[in-house]
Amino acid sequence: AILSDYMSDVTWELSLRAEQPIQGCDLSPHAFIRVKSNTLDNPGKAKVLEANPHVFSYRWSRGPSQQMCSSEQCPRQGSNDPSDWSEFSRGGPCLSCSVCLKAGVPRHETLYCSMSCFKGAWSQHSQKHLKLKGTVSKERTDTDDKEDDGGLSGYVDGQVPTSDSDANHGGNNWVDIFKDSKTYTPCEDDVGRILRVECRALTPNGDTLAGPIVVYTEAVLSAPRMPPRRGLHTIPGAATATALQRFRVISYNILAEIYATKQAYPYCDTWSLAWPYRRTIIIQELLDSMSDVICLQEVQADSYENDLMPALSSMGYDGLFKQKTRESMGQYGKVDGCATFWKRSKFLLMENYSIEFNECVVRAATQMGLEDPDRHRFISRMSKDNIAQVLVFEVLPRSSRSRMSSNHICVVNTHLYSNHLRPEIKLWQTYTLLREIEDFVLNQELALIICGDFNSEPESAVYDYMSSGSCNEEHNALVDDVCRSLGSIDHFMHNIDLSSAMGSTFGMEPQFTNYTKLFKGTLDYVWFTPGRLKVLAVTDLPSEADISEHGEALPSVSYPSDHLMLCCDVALLSSGSSVRNPHSMNRGHNRGGMNRGMHMGHGNNSSGNLSGMRSQSASPGIKMGKPGRR
User: Fold this and answer.
1) Widest CA span of the chain, in angstroms?
2) Residue 555: is the preceding peptide bond cis (ω within 30°)?
3) Buried b / exposed e across 256-279, counting CB within 10 Å, b at 16+?
4) What crossing angle do the helices spanning 374-382 and 423-443 adopt, rounded to 10°?
């Protein structure tokens, strides 16, 4: 009743913005409504919004073909390839003539894809200014002044001048193509044509509260181009090894949507950073790799549920997801984690566990006998929400002549803490990971693959510990361990024989697996037990020259993540051992992890769970309840 006294002063303002449309990539405009009033303060306006519930109604139309640059000499004329229209390829942002826009000249006649195109067309373009009486001075049309911007202004995708109308975009040449839904996915028929989206704010009974408002997009670009194909480096003579089965494994940090921001990657176009664009390339990359086991990091919960699992399941994969032990960043599903997929025709899931390092921290504090405030300080310092997946597969087809464990393999997928100023935390997580699985893997004589983003370079303590089984005391992770969280160096060892797939193949690790403007280095690895597995081939990684063809760094219009996908072919050997040193198996220090003597039963975990190990349902393809950077 009190609000009704002010409603005569209230007007509604509807805003709408649309990004660059691309074939095959979902396009969802951003609409919001606000209250305008000279008498109401912000809390009062919020109450008016609350008292007037509404929904947005959309109508999509396809218009005529439209050029994306006014210069007749533009080298990109006739191309709809996104790679040609990235800001990197153009050499700068799109530009438009503000003088022409203010005079009502159709936007596509004033838009230039780069400064070079604008300068090249200035002589012809300036003639338009002479025809626009009273809008430009004689000085502005002096064609001898090549450096004058002629009233030039920057242009941002989706911001449409108020003078725009159907008359400026092909008149009546519009066809309704979609309505009622906010999201539209451009198809091949839309490529090269502009789209129009009309939006209204409707009351629950269907009356118009605000609008309609119309936005015209840029011309639709064609589907994203896949990254250049990478060669397969085959190891001479490796295929002659006696093996039960060979299969392909990949490890890939796909850059979660919540981290793919313009602030983090200012050299990327907004549309190429958007998840619908990157998702298209990522899924195709995964399918093109023809991998049997796919280990992904930075998988967002909603991306797993809505995109990755449906796409891969339809192609013969089952999968499981484990989110980090943190709250969602905003709405449901906005938290990342690890996801592992496998070909259901090649593997039967036998056991499935997850490791929550935060739980391991609490247990470690108890075992160390810490009391507050030291206990609180230790837990706060070491708890970083990272997790790992531990899965045991039987390799198909079954062999009646082999021992049960000889055709079983354990696959671990993890993503360690990122802060380069805290190497001791990454080393502690690595130590905990191997401690949790060591007895289980060695006592069951399992072959082992560990994939992940370890956020650690080859010179790090983490790499040293993984590859050698111990750690040099001079590493920064130990020197900087002011909390003594790593304990005694004498007990800081493991007995699993591990090698890096890329490092053992080439004699050294790649120059980089993560390539941004601020950091270039190797952080991702595929570790394996050479006594039970043999690497047959690995894919080459792109060079700096390859990456610089598509952008300043990763991600770019052709590379959807700031990390590169690692891919290798391995063979499961019919015999061998994963033990580094058989004589030191019982060295007396306390190792947590799974109980010994675990019975491998399909879909069941017959042993108890210790420390941070959590059993999960092992039913192939199950979708994890309500899912669960750097």
Assistant:
1) 93
2) yes
3) bbbebeeeebeebbbbbbbbbbbb
4) 80
